[in-house]
């Protein structure tokens, strides 16, 4: 969104970090981790040596079961146990500007029982950086695509249909 705002019709934040213009992602992630009290049995990897910041991490199985996918089918939890499921850690703090990032239409999907980005934190981001639309999915955990896939697909179809209409209207000069 910051680098190519003109190429994005709409950004959909599904129970995700939605930075406020003028902030950085690492700052928000530290705030989330402090709210939940840590990442439990997750593992951090240091490609540049332990004296330097971690370069990637892998959510621990227990953390995934308790915080990420507590309402998801058990067979989906096996994906968290995959050794390839490492997440890179963005090293450079990208500053989100109102001119670029702030110009992209934003939609937020609230997960009501997310234990990682808890609903109160989701609502805080929405209040501080109001998106154009907000949807809620009852009973969904952090991994909405596992816990409530049909409801998420329905919301994404609504968003896609709305985004197409908005883009066509803009192209028509309305």
From TrEMBL:
One of its GO terms (molecular function) is methyl jasmonate esterase activity. It comes from Cryptomeria japonica. It comes from the Eukaryota. This is Uncharacterized protein. GO terms for biological process: jasmonic acid metabolic process; salicylic acid metabolic process.
